[in-house]
Amino acid sequence: MVKKVTPAQLRAAVNKAQRQQKQAIDKYNREARRYNAAAKKAVNDYNREVRAYNSKARAHNAKVENQRRRLDQEVRRLNSRPAATTFVTYRSSVETLTRTYTATEERLAGRTVTPASRELVDRGSEEAANSTYLLNAMDGDGAPEDDPTEDELRGPSMQEELGAFGHDLVDRWTGALFSLSPSNPDAARHFCTSAREVLIAMIDGAAPDSSVAEADPSCDRTDKGVPTRRAKVSYLLRRKGIDEGSIEDLVEEDMNNVLGLFREFNNGTHGHAGRFTITQLSALRIRVESAIGFIHTLCVV
Questions:
Q1: Which portions of the sequence form the region Disordered (predicted)?
Q2: pLDDT > 70: what percent of the chain?
Q3: Which residues lie across from 95 on neighbouring strands?
Q4: Mutual orientation of helices 187-206 and 229-239 as an angle, nearest 10°?
Q5: Fewer CB atoms inside 10 Å of the end CB: C or N, the chain?
C-alpha cells in the first residue's frame, strides 16, 4: 500500500534533500578551494624558489665573470711593464697558475661537471686574479684607492671557514693578521709564517696521513714515507666525487703558488726593503684569504 505523504511532509523531505545537496556542494566547493589554494601555493613556492635560484645563479655567474675580467686586466697590467728583478720566482708561479686555470677551463668547456667541480674551478679564477694582483701591488702597481685603514687591515676575517677546522686555527689566523702593520719591518714575514701554518693545518686536518694511505695504499709518498701533498689533494677531491686530472692540477698549482709565496718572504729573497705599504700588505692578506676559502671549499664535504 502506498504511503500517503502530506504536503508538509513532502516539503520537509524536499527541503532536507535540498539541504543535503547544498551541503554536498558546499563540501565539494570547500575541498576544491582548499585543493586549488594548495596547488596555487605549491606553484607560487616553486616559482619563488626558481626565481631565488635564478637570482643566485645570475649573481654567481656575474661574480665569476667579473673575476675572469679582473684576471685578464691584472695580467695585462703585469705584461705592460718590463719584468721586475724582484719576486722573479713568484712571477713564474703566477704565470703557471694562470695558464693552469685557463687550461682547466678549456678542458672542461662544453662538458657537464658536478657543482663541486664547478665551484673549485670558479674559485680558481679568483685565486689566479688575486695572485696576479699581489704581484702587481708588489711592483708598485696596486690600487691604493681601495686601501683599508690599518685597523681594518688587522681586523678579523675567515672565522667561519677556519672554525670548521678548530678554534686553534682561528686564533693562529687572528695572530697572523695582528702582525700586519706598515710600521712593522717584519710584518710580511711574520704574517706568512703563521699563514703557512694555517693552510697546511687545514690540509692535514682534512686529510690525515692515515686516512689518505688507507684510501689509496699505493699513493705517492715523501722520503719519510708519508703521503705527499698531491696525494692529499687527490684524496680530498675523490671525497667530493671529483675525478678530473685538470682540476687536480689546478689545486696543486694553487698550493704551489701560495706556499711558494711564503717561502719567498721567509727566505728574504723578495729584494724589497723590510717595510711594505698598506696597499701591498692588503694585497698579501687578500691573496691568503682567498687561499683559505679555496682550501675550505676543497676540504668540506
A1: 136-155
A2: 92
A3: none
A4: 50
A5: N
Question: In a 3-state reduction of DSSP, which class is residue 83?
Answer: coil
| Short-list 160, 169, 193, 199, CA closest to 298 | 199
All cell numbers assigned to 149:
685603514
Long-range contacts from 104-109, C-beta under 8 angstroms, 24+ separation? 104/246, 104/247, 104/249, 104/250, 107/246, 108/244, 108/246
Please state, in angstroms and rounded to a whole number, the distance separating the CA atoms of residues 141 and 22: 82
The domain spans of the chain are 64-299
Q: Is 128 exposed, middle or buried (0-12, 13-18, 19+ CB in 10 A)?
A: buried
Rg (CA), the chain: 31
Residues 295, 234: contact at Cβ < 8 Å? no
User: Are 266 and 95 in contact, with CB atoms under 8 Å apart?
Assistant: no
Q: What is the rounded distance in angstroms from the CA atom of residue 123 to the CA atom of residue 134?
A: 16
Q: Which residues contact 67 (CB under 8 A, 6 or more apart)?
A: 122, 125, 126, 129
Which residues fall within 8 angstroms of residue 262, CB to CB, at 6 or more apart? Answer: 192, 193, 195, 196
The answer to whether residue 253 scores a pLDDT higher than 90 is: yes
pLDDT in tens, 272-294: 446 799 999 999 999 999 999 99
DSSP 6-46: -HHHHHHHHHHHHHHHHHHHHHHHHHHHHHHHHHHHHHHHH
CA atoms of 256 and 38, how far apart (whole Å): 55
Three-state DSSP state, 227 = strand
Instruction: Specify the pTM.
Output: 0.81
Amino acid identity, position 236: L
